[in-house]
Amino acid sequence: MNNAAPHIEFNRSPAPTIGVEWEVGLVDPESRDLVPKAVELIDLVAPRHPELHFEREFLQNTVELVTGVHTSVPDAVHELERGVEALREGAQELGVKLWASGSHPFSDWREQPVSPKMTYAEIINRTKYWGSQMLIWGVHVHVGISHEDRVWPIINALMTKYPHMLALSACSPAWEGVDTGYASNRTMLYQQLPTAGLPYQFGSWREWEQFQHDQATSGVTSHTGSMHFDIRPAAKWGTIEVRVADATSNLRELSAVVALTHCLVVHYDRMIDRGEQLPTLQPWHVAENKWRAARYGMEALVVTSRDTEERWVTQELSELVDVLSPLAEELGCLAELKLIDEIVERGAGYTRQRRVHTLTGDWKQVVDATCAEMVEMRPL
User: Fold this and answer.
1) I need a surface site. Which of 37, 145, 240, 370 has the fewest CB within 10 A?
2) Is the pLDDT of residue 2 over 60?
3) What is its biological role (predicted)?
4) Between 131 and 105, whose confidence is greater?
5) Which residues contact 115 (CB under 8 A, 6 or more apart)?
6) Above 50 in pLDDT, residue 359?
7) Where residue 1 falls among pLDDT bands split at 50, 70, 90?
């Protein structure tokens, strides 16, 4: 292997801390279309709440809520709740509504301006048609890791639970006024970018360093500064960043997704402590599972072993709740983890959106129902 690759310092975390990023859109209450008022909203709200963290995003219609570093899921979710309340107050003053989902059901990406940031302009310049379509929103969960040598074994293990995390959060069935037939059309759109999609199953931190060096040398990451893998190391923060989930339409379901992610990362980390072999799947099974979860959501039949055994993702999720419950209790997120059973019973976001459209034939009614969830479906 080429020794030219420089060392990437991983800012090791002494505990499995938790941090969350949630992308939230702004819609007009009359047209229900997206509106580019994120900068105005942040400028209005941020001075009033200096303890909260709001970021501008790729699109001018999006505000990203970013938590600080927390030791438990409930603490992180509580900070997001305070952020939502602050944004809602400002949004009312601006005459807009908060809305969150994996993608908007009818907004035209051609009419949504990109934020004036050099890296964003470079992305559009390089990716053209596909990059311009990124009218999508997600949830990113950071979990602290004690040593870089653990990062890729844990990421590779997390890939075996990719469809579980995606099915739970899937809420982007429509695109440009058409029901795509997918539970998460966001997933299919995002992977079109050259720096996005499934990570390679690296065998070591050194291999990751060489990859990063190669990508920079060949110019792949010169326009963004980083790879946008669905799960990736965040060396600056000493975390694994899980970017699988659609942006949930409410904090209640977000807390379940975050609890599952936190528990899975710590579960695999503890397996390393015990000297146990972490699970992996062949890359073709991982890719197939991603597609199945994007297409069928909670109705997906997923590959669960290297011997190509299959189970329904709902069965897998119910079993995960049982297996991870003792750990969740230790981590302080048992109630949030158990919300998975509620989502399985009620149906994920894509199911509810599709149900409203079937009853009304109107995607505007879907936007209204999704906006209402932001208010009604509270965290624990």
Assistant:
1) 37
2) no
3) ATP-dependent carboxylate-amine ligase which exhibits weak glutamate--cysteine ligase activity.
4) 105
5) 38, 39, 56, 57, 58, 59, 60
6) yes
7) very low
Q: For residues 341 and 321, is the Cβ–Cβ distance under 8 A? A: yes
In a domain, 100, yes or no: yes
- Please write the tens of the pLDDT for every residue from 79-94: 999 999 999 999 999 9
For 137-197, the DSSP string reads -BEEEEEE-S-GGGHHHHHHHHGGGHHHHHHHH--B-EETTEE-S-SBHHHHHHTTSTTEE
Q: Taking the mean position of all CA atoms in its chain, how far away is CA 210? A: 26
Confirm whether 123 is domain-assigned.
Answer: yes
Among 118, 155, 134, smallest CA distance to 234 is for: 155
Contact 333, 259 (CB under 8 A): yes
CB 287 within 8 A of CB 191: no
pLDDT at 125 over 90: no
Q: Is the pLDDT of residue 3 over 70?
A: no
Phi/psi for 100 (5° steps) reads: -140, 140
Distance in angstroms (rounded) separating the CA atoms of residues 365 and 367: 5
Write out the residue range of the structural domain in which residue 227 sits: 18-376
What is the pLDDT, as a whole number, of residue 380? 81
* CATH number of the CATH domain containing 235: 3.30.590.20
147 in a domain, yes or no? yes
In a domain, 98, yes or no: yes
* 219 vs 372, more confident: 372
Higher pLDDT, 225 or 364: 364
**Inter-residue contact 61 to 51 (CB < 8 Å):** no
Q: How far apart are CA 133 and CA 117, in angstroms?
A: 17
CA torsion sign for 232, 101, 376, 66 is positive
Largest Cα–Cα separation, the chain? 61
CB-CB neighbours of 51 under 10 Å: 9
The residue type at 29: P
- Residue 44: pLDDT over 50: yes
Residue 217, token pair as written in the block: 């040398």
How far apart CA 261 and CA 265 sit, in angstroms, is 6
